[in-house]
């Protein structure tokens, strides 16, 4: 599938994953229709408009997951759609109506738009590791056949539970619709996405990933036994699977695993001026890793390019450049209860 002059749509284009994907698609020669909730909000879209080839190969389209039919115009005439947008409001007072239903209805609305267009050859849906391994007893290796236990999620209602439910139900609904309507669907399941980025604010996944460096203890449990993928590897896997005619089904995209102990050790060695902990609750050097197996993706010919260190150095350096992480002395003061908050922590993000 050659890229020259082909038109594709990227939803959630101003976000962490979406904006980097737009950049890579433009580099590959695609003409990109980028959907955002407010094309006139320069603060949210300037990083897209500043991309190379944006003036000739990029257009912004207004669309919202909560508005039925709002993606129809952007998708009409496209040969492919990359559905990245998703509501992420972990503190919603009404998660059923503000997170879960919009996520499910949003993907179905986009799929209906693909059918109406009659030009869409393939839909790539960015799913989540939260659809795979959220269950009471953790396994040691997970693959594309695994699904999260929603009964456990509803009973436990852990941090982010509505996100796990929304992504799981949305992906399952997408598979049902795709089979009933003969739509070529690929779902990509990334683990925690780390790396340099384009968006002006702190990506939610980096609030978690960089928590040992910033002292954000509320997120330690999420990466106790972590799995990670570089943002660029993830976006390149989207393009790889879109262009590969043999691609089918679900694909885990995860290149590295590390416990929080291993991660903190690496960060201490790289950034010794930060007060990075050496001890963590329920985690020591004997803690084993939980693996998300990317064998299916690798067997198709995809290759990961980045190391774990590459991911985190890229993320930290970008945060420094954008002023999103305070200098070491201010972080230490914040941890000790003084001065400022060390990191921007949005409670509600919609790409």
UniProtKB/TrEMBL annotation:
Q: What is its EC number?
A: 1.1.1.219, 1.1.1.234
Q: Which domain of life is it from?
A: Eukaryota
* CDD domains with a match to the protein in the record: FR_SDR_e
**Among its keywords, does the record have NADP?**
yes
Ranges for domain NAD-dependent epimerase/dehydratase: 8-248
Question: Which EC class heads this enzyme's classification?
Answer: oxidoreductase
> Which GO molecular function terms does the record list?
dihydroflavanol 4-reductase activity; flavanone 4-reductase activity
- Which terms under GO biological process does the entry name? anthocyanin-containing compound biosynthetic process
**Similarity comment: family membership:** Belongs to the NAD(P)-dependent epimerase/dehydratase family. Dihydroflavonol-4-reductase subfamily.
InterPro entries, from UniProt? Epimerase_deHydtase (IPR001509), NAD(P)-bd_dom_sf (IPR036291), NAD(P)_dehydrat-like (IPR050425)
| Pfam families from the UniProt entry | Epimerase
Catalysed reactions listed for this entry: (2S)-flavan-4-ol + NADP(+) = (2S)-flavanone + NADPH + H(+); a (2R,3S,4S)-leucoanthocyanidin + NADP(+) = a (2R,3R)-dihydroflavonol + NADPH + H(+)
**Coiled coil ranges:** none
Q: State the name under which the record lists this protein.
A: Flavanone 4-reductase
Organism equals Gossypium tomentosum (Hawaiian cotton)
Keywords carried by this UniProt record: Flavonoid biosynthesis, NADP, Oxidoreductase
